[in-house]
Amino acid sequence: MTLKIANHPCFNDASRHKFGRIHLPIAPKCNIQCNYCNRKFDCMNENRPGVTSKILSPQQAMHYLDQAMILSPNIAVVGIAGPGDPFANPNETMETLRLVRAKYPEMLLCVATNGLDLLPYIDELAELQVSHVTITINAIDPEIGSEIYAWVRYNKKMYRDIDAARVLIGNQLEALKRLKEAGVTAKVNSIIIPGINDTHVIEVARKVAELGADILNCMPYYSTTETVFENIPEPSVDMVAEIQKATSEYLPQMKHCSRCRADAVGIIGEINSEEMMQKLAEAAALPKNPTDVRPFVAVSSLEGVLINQHLGEAERFLIYGMDYDKNECVLVDSRTAPPTGGGQQRWEELAGILKDCRALLVNGAGGSPTKVLNEHGIEVMVLEGIIEEAVYGVFCGQDLKHLMKSSQIHACGSSCSGTGGGCG
């Protein structure tokens, strides 16, 4: 199979008006905290990296891709760019890439990452013929990097300040070297942050050129509210042009970047169409695996009105279905929870009891049961509020952020500077 590398609109300026790309938003968690990043990702009105209106499972993403290809047959590239980091969500990322490669063998595949956890996956990325990888490298000097990154979580350990920068930069540069050894085209993004790294970007360019990078994208920093850097002004057009000119001595430049959303689709620079966003919403409302027959939603409740019981304390689960003729949810069953104790086996049994449910709505849940149930295709949603409102929202693909407990919102990173403790 010969991939048409020249058709990638981000790497080839001549292709950007003819060929489109689609970003599949399957990676919500992140493994670092940048001081310019607000992880509020469910916004419809911002066009910046890290923003998406929905999060998809790999199987939902394939359903969405199938629909998107009908609406926009000029899509030549499938990319994964967040809204977190692809390799902070490695299982979802690699599964999605495998599924796309199997069904669309001539499709270009690419990922955009901070590079922290990229190394273990480079060999398989090459086997899957992932042709393009972008790493955002904002500094090669840990002193400067320590001003940009609040924390890094690597191998289940927290790093802060200059230690965080050392770990991140070391992994980024080694990953770039390994990518080139594996024959993968590599783009480096460097975000120009006035007063922080604007005079340092040329050093980044020199170093990544030595390691074999193919192209450099000097991106102007985007001022985002509720971040450490929110009061830093964006770089001027002249500053960006001067840096691009200086760094062009080392690498070709990408100058047509539009700072795409994590759910961007179509021609670069064009806004996602309403029809395409509707297809994304429809995919997100499906069961995690759309081929599963999962007509129900389970709820943990003390009295049957509110979502107000922790998963571990539930003795029974209320099972709701949807009457689409009447446009209302209905209680169809009540199922007894497995006996307490038994560790993971208890949650495996629960997954069997709820095997026809697409989601389980609870007021709290631990990491172990959440992981087991997710692996069985049951989404655990930590909410509070009226049962009927939440269940109806799940069936109709509505935004339920107003029902999410603050801890659950932060687990996804919304409006959160983070603690580095990891996401559930």
TrEMBL record:
GO terms for biological process: molybdopterin cofactor biosynthetic process. This is FeMo cofactor biosynthesis protein NifB. Pathway: Cofactor biosynthesis; Fe-Mo cofactor biosynthesis. PANTHER family: FEMO COFACTOR BIOSYNTHESIS PROTEIN NIFB (PTHR43787:SF13), FEMO COFACTOR BIOSYNTHESIS PROTEIN NIFB-RELATED (PTHR43787). Involved in the biosynthesis of the iron-molybdenum cofactor (FeMo-co or M-cluster) found in the dinitrogenase enzyme of the nitrogenase complex in nitrogen-fixing microorganisms. NifB catalyzes the crucial step of radical SAM-dependent carbide insertion that occurs concomitant with the insertion of a 9th sulfur and the rearrangement/coupling of two [4Fe-4S] clusters into a [8Fe-9S-C] cluster, the precursor to the M-cluster. It comes from Chlorobium ferrooxidans DSM 13031. Belongs to the radical SAM superfamily. NifB family. Its cofactor is [4Fe-4S] cluster. GO terms for molecular function: 4 iron, 4 sulfur cluster binding; lyase activity; metal ion binding. PROSITE patterns: MOAA_NIFB_PQQE (PS01305), RADICAL_SAM (PS51918). It comes from the Bacteria. InterPro entries: Aldolase_TIM, Di-Nase_FeMo-co_biosynth, DiNase_FeMo-co_biosyn_sf, Elp3/MiaA/NifB-like_rSAM, MoaA_NifB_PqqE_Fe-S-bd_CS, Nase_CF_NifB, rSAM, rSAM_sf. Coiled coil: none annotated. Keywords: 4Fe-4S, Iron, Iron-sulfur, Lyase, Metal-binding, Nitrogen fixation, S-adenosyl-L-methionine.
